[in-house]
Amino acid sequence: MRPMPRIIAAIAASAALVLSAAACGGDDSSSGSGGSGDPIVIGYSAWPGWFPLKVAEEKGFFDKAGVKVELKYFNDYTASIDALTAGQTDANTQTLNDTLAGEAAGADLKIVVNTDFSAGNDAVIVDKSITSVKDLRGKTIAAEAGVVDHYLLLQGLEANGMTEKDINFRGSPTDAAAAGFASGQFDGVAVFAPFTLEALKRPGSHVLFSSKDYPGSIPDHIVFDAKTVAERPEDVQKVVDAWYETVAYLKSNPADARAIMAKQAGVSADEYKTLDEGTNILDAKDALAAFTDDAKPTSVPATAKKINPFLVSSGLTKEEAPLDGLFAPEFTQKAVDGNGG
Questions:
Q1: Which helix (H) or strand (E) holds 309?
Q2: Is the omega angle on the peptide bond into residue 194 within 30 degrees of 0, that is, cis?
Q3: Are strands 188-192 and 69-74 parallel, antiparallel or unpaired?
Q4: CATH topology assigned to domain 6-119+217-338
Q5: Vertex 47 angle, CA 289 and 109, to 5°
């Protein structure tokens, strides 16, 4: 039996779940000084589309916007999802897949910012003996069960007439899966950047397929608890404004921003530069367009309608997530209007 994804297990037990700092997997907390009252607590983890939050903090963009923000960095991505579910954070950076899984299990969330689209930084990496997807049959492939790279793996298998039953799937936290593959424990691994760099240290390893082969299929977001959005809309708007000022800074000062993000990622600036091509970070106008429900591959609502039944058919959720009220484009709309449209 496939292990229950941690996000669903956490929601099912949310009334009794209390996370200590140690349970966060070595998280690092820091606060901005802007604004007043309780800080907006935002969880984030290792993904190139989310490291700009560290830039926002170091460059004082939250302070400039007038909002107090506490960033909590999680080495364990699913722990960041659990923390949002348990009310330990007000917002979290996470994929559309994991957000839909949370909604399907009873969470009340709002997608407030479309941060980026994965454009190659999610990948299935294999050893030199595997040259096609069909070669995965009978092989031991690791991924973090229930999260987006597991979904990418299943997507690639399905596109080639296969299912998870055709492989020996091993559920493992993303960092451990990458390290295990690099040391020869598995035949292949599905991981996201920067853990792709660790996996590719194995001699002869190579990318079999990636999110680049499935454009628009892996959108990423800043997701807020709905209660926070309802009770503190002005502070949420300030967070969004600070985010888009940060995105502009990435373009105007790429070397400085890259140095900050590389330090947080634990890689060199040159290594981090190679990750830029695999993540399409959205400016305010493109992020607003992604909220539109249309036939474009960059339509997040349209992608959600495709992912929803896939999550059910693959056993990752019991039922489809309700989409009404999930998307909150009004904050990005105000950011666009405030900068002259």
A1: helix 300-313
A2: yes
A3: unpaired
A4: D-Maltodextrin-Binding Protein; domain 2 (3.40.190)
A5: 55
Query: Is the separation of the CB atoms in 141 and 75 below 8 Å?
Result: no
Residues 132, 259: contact at Cβ < 8 Å?
Answer: no
Distance CA 35, CA 48 (A): 27
For 64, 122, 151, 315, the CA distances from 214, given in Å and listed in that order, are: 38, 10, 12, 21
Half-sphere exposure of 76 (CA within 13 A, CB side): 18
Token pair in block for residue 77: 């991505």
Give me the sign of the Cα torsion angle 116, 119, 120, 124: positive
Tens-digit pLDDT profile for residues 289-317? 999 999 998 999 999 998 998 888 878 89
| pLDDT tens-digit map of 96-134 | 999 999 999 999 999 999 999 999 999 999 999 999 999
Annotation: CATH topology of 122-213: D-Maltodextrin-Binding Protein; domain 2 (3.40.190)
**Residues 107, 69: contact at Cβ < 8 Å?**
no
Two tokens at 5?
């994804």
| Rg (the chain; Cα; Å) | 19
